[in-house]
Amino acid sequence: MRSLDDIREEYEFLEGDERYSMLIELGRELDPMPDALKTDATLVRGCSAAVWVYPTAGEPSDRLHFLADSNAAITKGIVALVIAAVQDKPAPEVARMDVTGALEPFDLKNQLSSNRTQGVPNMIALVKEHAARLADA
C-alpha cells in the first residue's frame, strides 16, 4: 500500500471526477479481506455503506496491519485512506497520532457527500483503540 504522503501528492493534482477515480483505485489496492472476516464484530458502525475493518498481526509484532473492505467503491477508497495513514506503523505512534489531521489535506467533507464520510470518525476511533490496546500491552 502506498504511503499517505504519496497518495496526497497525487490527489492534489487531480480534480472532481479524477479524485473519485483515484479513491476507487485506492480501494482496489487494499489487501483482500476474506469473506469469513466480514462479520458483525468487524463491521464499523455509522457508515452509510457496509465497512469492515479487521486488525491482523503486523511484522514486527508492535506494528499495526489491517484488512478492510466495503461494499461501495468510493467508501472503500475512503477506508483505504484511513488505513494508509496507519498501516504498518508502530502501535504507540498510531495511538498518539492525529489521524483526522493527517486526512485533512484530502478535504473529504467538501469533496464527498456527508453520508459518505459520516463513518470516518468511527473508523479512526476503531483503529486508534486497537493501537492503544497494543501499545499498553
Share in helix: 40-55%
Percent in strands = 5-15%
The major beta sheet can be summarized as: 2 strands, antiparallel
Rg estimate, integer Å:
14 Å
Cα distance, first to last residue? 27 Å
Average pLDDT, rounded to a whole number, is 90
Order of strands, main sheet, comes to 1-2
Helical/strand content category: mainly alpha
Number of strands: 2
Element pattern in H and E: HHEEHHHHHH
Question: DSSP helix count?
Answer: 8
Strand and helix map with partners:
Blueprint: H1 4-12, H2 16-29, E1 51-57, E2 64-70, H3 73-86, H4 91-96, H5 99-103, H6 108-111, H7 114-117, H8 120-136
Antiparallel strand pairs: 1-2
Helix pairs in contact: 2-3, 3-8
How would you describe this protein?
The chain has helices spanning 4-12, 16-29, 73-86, 91-96, 99-103, 108-111, 114-117, 120-136, and strands at residues 51-57, 64-70. The chain has a two-stranded antiparallel ribbon. Helices cover 53% and strands 10% of the residues. It has 137 residues and is mainly α. α2 packs across α3 and α3 (73-86) packs parallel to α8 (120-136). The chain is globular, with a radius of gyration of 14 Å. It contains 8 helices and 2 strands; from the N terminus they run ααββαααααα.
